[in-house]
Design goal:
This protein has four helices and eight strands, in the order E-E-E-E-H-H-H-E-E-E-E-H. It is α+β, with helices and mostly antiparallel strands and about 180 residues long. The protein has one domain: Phosphatase 2c, domain 1 (4-Layer Sandwich), CATH 3.60.40. The longest helix has 27 residues. It starts with 6 loop residues before the first strand and ends in an 11-residue tail after the last helix.
Length: about 180
């Protein structure tokens, strides 16, 4: 996905129809997105390297490579063996939530360590957004950063995630907007 040309991916399975498009836009010389659509339609991942930082394309690709290892059927099956029923939440959901948490943590630690080891001035980083479609009626989605997940249903587009950004955090903590007309 690391070129000047837009790239598209499509997947159709029994559970989902999904498409992804990646475009560097007009301002960037390089597209730093990485998209992975599992061919069985079980999980979808997108990472967007942080523009203005070093090696964003490497960060997005590395993060997805790490995360998708945790979402392979054999890893999920092994993790399910270690989960006991309890809280009323299906074991598969507990399992997948745990795997996603660990995968994102390991991806973050890996990139952080690489940044420190290679003494980068503007640390490489990436956003991540993903969705998992287990065999039951549940869907799990997760994200870090400002890459968004939307649902299109009956011609209605709904944003499912809220950006993790300094601006959103500022607003949540009572930030105010200066109205220039009242000055």
């Amino acid at each position: 996905m690391h070129s000047r040309q837009p790239a598209t991916l499509k997947i159709h399975s029994n559970q989902i129809e999904a498409a992804g498009i990646s475009d560097p836009g007009r301002m960037r010389s390089e597209n730093q997105d990485a998209i992975y659509l599992d061919h069985d339609g079980v999980f979808l991942l997108l990472a967007d390297g942080m523009g203005g930082h070093e090696r964003g394309a490497e960060a997005s690709t590395s993060a997805l490579e790490i995360i998708k290892k945790y979402l392979q059927p054999e890893v999920i099956a092994q993790e399910l063996c270690d989960i006991t029923e309890g809280s009323g939440v299906p074991a598969e959901i507990v399992c997948l939530t745990s795997l996603v948490d660990e995968a994102v943590r390991i991806a973050n630690e890996t990139l952080f360590d690489r940044n420190r080891t290679e003494n980068l001035k503007r640390y490489m980083g990436t956003t991540v957004v993903g969705m998992i479609i287990p065999e039951d009626d549940n869907v799990i989605w997760f994200h870090v950063g400002d890459s968004r997940l939307y649902r299109l249903r009956d011609s209605d587009l709904t944003r499912l995630t809220t950006d993790h950004s300094a601006h959103i955090e500022w607003e949540r903590n009572g930030g105010w907007v200066l109205n220039r007309e009242k000055m």
